[in-house]
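The following block was generated as part of the benchmark described in Methods. Ligand: magnesium ion.
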Amino acid sequence: MLIPTPMPSAASALPVSVEDQQELFTTLLDGSNQAILIHDRLEPLYANRKFARLLGFETPEEVIALGWLDDLIPIQRLVRAFVIWSRILESGQAVTLTEVRGLNRQGAEIFVDVHTRPIQWQGRTVVFSSLYDVTARARAKRELERSYLRYRQLAESAHDVFWDMSADGRLTHVEGGDDLGHAFSLCLGDRWIDHVPVDARDDAMVAAIDAALTAGRAFRSETIPFDLGPLGRRLIEMNGVPVRDERDRLIGFRGTFRDETGAEQARREGELQRNLAALGRVSGGVAHEINNLLQPILTFSRLAADRADNERDREAMQTVLASARQARDIVRTVLEFARPRSPGGVATIADPVEVIDREIRILATQAPLVRLTVSHTPGCNRPILGGPGELGQIVANLLKNAFEAMEGQGGVTLSTATHPDGNALELCIADTGPGMTETVRARVFEPFFTTKEFGKGTGLGLSIVYGIVRRWGGTIRCDSFPGAGTRFTLVLPYVTRQNAVEENSKSG
Ligand code: ADP
Ligand code: MG
């Protein structure tokens, strides 16, 4: 009954009965290490023990008793299974399918490689299949795919950029990190160092990374400024580990870029504020003492100059007086800087544009050769938090710096507009002066930081501006590049019902 035809021709040389042949056949197939099934379009005609066990049955008879194998094929695969079988039957060719998904009798998923070929059997063409259980391999592969997918999703959702680099420090692959990733993808093929601006390079740190790259060591950097096309300058933390081939030769590095610009700025800002507060207290105390001592010097040197009976003495006294006046001006600036928040909290300025324009009219006479362009966007002139005198001082300090930087020539643009978030006045003062190096730009708000010669600058102008703007709850930023001019952008909060109440309760 269960005899495929034709039987091997060698067998016919032996004098064996049909029963013997059948015995031999079932012994061979039953003892086989392969799972074997003979079926006619899913109707099982023969199954060996291995097949029965593979599919969770006790005996082959249970498989035959099913009469129909569709329970063992996931429903979405049935049509495809039929198509394949009919193709096998039509073509008469063997077909191998790998990692075919099936279900065992308990409904659990299994994977098999299936070799099928048509055979003639009891006068009809049926399919002979041998199956290899590859469930473990397929599961491992799927698990790997899943974990790769997890990693991919992680990489895509993370803010970090994952990078690969050749051993000589060229970016060969970047992934993840949205905008940052996109910006770094424009650097592919370049050496990382090519995107670290020379004017802002920390040579010691670059040398340390270079040493790690050469030695094939893992490294972790502090923030490094990178010029990243569409994103401009960003502060990036760079971590990397060496990648080696099977023979342990260094083939490159792999790691992450993390954008620390915001965090780093917040850190610097915090540091600056603490410095300002501490310096304010110290210098305020000193300035107060000096101011007291200056009063008699001013008074009596003026008197002495008036009463001098010869020209030489008068000139000498006038020099003393001039120096004392200059000292008084500096001391006033220091007191201005050191002054704690004005009593009574923050006031309001009803018409900031008016205050700004008045200050410009006063200042413009000081630099007649400078082209001054002023523009106010309609609708932006709404009350802001702050005091009119201080706003005047802000404009004066910024304009004076611009005039001084340009040495009286060039162009200054002052513009006001409503900040994009709608809650603040944005004031921009830009000049076409020489600009600043990154090292200078990073320190401009520091009290007593000046690049001007002794007697010309106190280094307090911008720290005063900074202190005022922060007290009003606003922000100030400075963009400047050597040769490309300087721009200060101030964001000064409008008065809202909310912050007006807050300020009143602070002052009360
Ligand atoms: P000061 O003017 O007394 O030096 P500031 O606090 O006003 O002090 O400015 C600090 C420094 O910032 C200046 O010495 C100068 O180096 C730099 N700076 C400020 N504004 C500009 C500008 N518009 N262009 C170039 N450099 C500037
Ligand atoms: Mg100044």
